[in-house]
Structure formats: structure tokens, C-alpha cells
Design a protein that fits this description.
The protein has 6 helices and 6 strands. With about 150 residues, the protein is an alpha+beta fold. The longest helix is centred in the middle third of the chain and has 15 residues.
Length: about 150
């Protein structure tokens, strides 16, 4: 399954995105799929890793985050190797804990992504500060179910 590729239409269907969103994210270089120039036109194909990124962006947007924060999240996940490697099999539940959260940074006053910390989350909620959980393992599992 890790060598699978999906058309734009299929990627949009699986992730709940629109074709216009995929095009916009491609233009902004947030999720850049493989583009094949063979045949009579250009064909765009999304890898499994691309679908994972699309699903995370959709999750962030549905949680009420803006596009810039969702795009920054993808870049941070890539830089910190929080996204799964390309050899990951989506049909096998990961053994690692892949739970993260957005919380307000005391230094910047902005939402920042970090590893999930129950005590920090509870403290934030008690003081009226937002906490947005990001359970990558759940996102990946939901994606696997949609692909099957």
C-alpha cells in the first residue's frame, strides 16, 4: 500500500478536500504531489505520504485553525520527523504514541504544536486557555479506513 498513488479526484474524495483546495495547497507548496508530464496532459498523483499531509491539514482546518497555521504544522511535522516515513504501512497501527496538541505559548501568546502533555493540557483548560489535541495515529487510522 505504501507504493500507491492517487489521482487528485481520489485524493480529494479520501481526505474530504475539494479539488480547488488541493490546487491551492499545491500552488502554496504545502503538499506537492508527483506531476507526470507523460501522455496528452499533466497528471497529478498523490502518494500515501501526501494523503497523510492532506488529512492533517483538513483536521487542522476543521478544528478552526487558519490555513497558515495548518501549513506551518505540516512543515513542523516534517522537520521534526513527526509525519510517518514513506515506508509506513497505513494498514498497520503504529506502535509509537503520536499524540500532540496545540496550546498557547507563554512566550509568544500564539498557538504552538508540541507533544501531548496531560498536565499541561489540564492546566491550560483550567485557566481558560485553548488546547487542541492532534492525534496523528487516529487521523492515520481514519485515513486507512477510507482507503480500504
Amino acid at each position: 500500500m505504501e507504493d500507491s498513488f492517487f489521482t487528485s479526484k481520489k485524493a480529494a474524495e479520501i481526505t474530504g478536500s475539494t479539488l480547488r483546495q488541493l490546487q491551492y495547497w499545491r500552488e502554496k507548496e504545502v503538499v506537492v504531489p508527483t506531476i507526470s508530464a507523460s501522455g496528452t496532459g499533466r497528471s497529478v498523483y498523490y502518494s500515501l505520504q501526501d494523503l497523510l499531509k492532506l488529512a492533517v491539514i483538513q483536521y487542522c482546518l476543521k478544528a478552526g485553525l487558519n490555513f497558515e497555521l495548518a501549513a506551518t504544522t505540516i512543515k513542523q511535522l516534517e522537520n521534526d520527523n513527526w509525519l510517518l516515513p514513506t515506508t509506513y504501512r497505513i494498514d498497520v497501527k503504529p506502535e509509537v504514541n503520536m499524540r500532540y496538541m496545540f496550546s498557547l505559548s507563554e512566550k509568544t501568546g500564539k498557538l504552538e504544536l508540541g507533544k501531548y502533555d496531560l498536565k499541561k493540557a489540564q492546566s491550560s483548560v483550567k485557566t481558560g486557555k485553548p488546547v487542541i489535541p492532534v492525534c496523528l495515529d487516529d487521523i492515520y487510522q481514519q485515513l486507512a479506513e477510507k482507503i480500504d
